[in-house]
Amino acid sequence: MTNSSSERRYDSRTKAVRLQLQELMLTYSPVSQNSSNRAAFARDDQRVFDRHVPVGGYGSACASCGRRWPCPQVESLRDAGHYIR
Question: What is the pTM of this model?
Answer without folding.
Answer: 0.76
